[in-house]
UniProtKB/TrEMBL annotation:
It comes from Linum tenue. This is Uncharacterized protein. It comes from the Eukaryota. The lineage of its organism: Eukaryota, Viridiplantae, Streptophyta, Embryophyta, Tracheophyta.
């Protein structure tokens, strides 16, 4: 009886844990992609400054 009531209240505990795990994985991938994107962008800006500024002056 207690197990059935718990399952009705909170859903499947295994399912919930896997859902949160996948959400954590997705957010981790997104943050890593965002970080690498910012790094590449800043590198490109740095390289452009190094290449174009001496040519302009």
């Amino acid at each position: 009886m207690q197990k059935r009531r718990r399952r009705e209240l909170g859903g499947n505990p295994e399912e919930a844990s896997t859902l949160t795990y996948f959400q954590a994985q997705i957010t981790g991938c997104q943050s890593m992609f965002f970080f690498t994107f910012i790094m590449i962008q800043s590198l490109c800006i740095y390289c452009k400054q190094q290449v174009f500024l001496p040519a302009v002056t």
